[in-house]
Amino acid sequence: MPERYIAFDVETPNLRNDRISAIGITVVEDGRIAEEFYSLVDPQTFFSSFNIGLTGITPDMVKGAPTFPELWEQIEATMGSGVLVAHNAKFDMGLLSKCLRAYDILWQTDAPYACTCTMGRRCYPQLADHKLNTMCAYLGISLDHHRADSDSTACARLLIDYMEHGFSPESFIRSYKL
Predict the structure, then answer these.
(1) At residue 34, does pLDDT exceed 70?
(2) What separation in angstroms does the CA of 85 have from each of 15, 57, 105, 133, 175?
(3) What number of other Cβ atoms are within 10 A of residue 84's Cβ?
């Protein structure tokens, strides 16, 4: 059974959803939060007013922030050091894949991942929905929604809660073709 999970969340600058403007990473080892990382990212593209309103991230805020290739140099080892975990993971995994391809960054061809939304449906079937904010409100987990650092930490705390309730993430691990 894996003992290291890399909960991550990304924010996007526009509705094309092919670049990121922020990333939060929360590492879970042996059922505890072991490290946290956050960075704004210069997406090298335009920002839509919708996404600015949703995330609070503006073009001025990312001036001087690392581009995705620069950021990748900092986070590649961490991202490859365990099972990737996200809430609605196909969205975040898709964005990661698009960024890697857009910048011709060769990484691994497949990445193991698990989705805390899918796990939440199994662990808490009585809830009307399993959105991140709903799950956090139900479990009393602090959340500043659509902030990558807060979202990744909340995702990690959900994962820890599921494990404490006897749900093994191992049965939820899938492979994402990057």
Answers:
(1) yes
(2) 23, 23, 21, 17, 11
(3) 23
